[in-house]
Amino acid sequence: MSRVIFIEHDGRQHTVEVEDGENLMQCAQSNLIPGVLGDCGGCCTCGTCHAYIDPQWSQAAGEQNDDERLMLEGAEHVLPGSRLICQIRMVPDLDGVIVRIPPAQR
Fold first, then answer.
1. Burial tier of 72 (Cβ tally within 10 Å: 0-12, 13-18, 19+)
2. Contact 53, 59 (CB under 8 A)
3. pLDDT tens digits, residue range 12-50?
4. Phi, psi of 15 (to 5 degrees)
């Protein structure tokens, strides 16, 4: 099992365990992380799982696909590390990944 560190906009931190292959949105919802809504169930059609991946993890998280890029164009508070975490599946290289929740999703 791997770990994910979710950090809310106010700094509250939640370290949770996740199985390889599970997407980070599912992990957040299973662990009741505030601000990760995932209204579309992980289909990359709503943008309510927008979060920031710390730069040291961006390569391991993989590239954005075209659908994710389009959804993020309409999101608030988009930064270079912005991702829809429903599109990131846990792999061993992401063990300890830091995921920050944007202020618009508290």
1. middle
2. no
3. 999 999 999 999 999 999 999 999 998 888 899 899 999
4. -105, 120
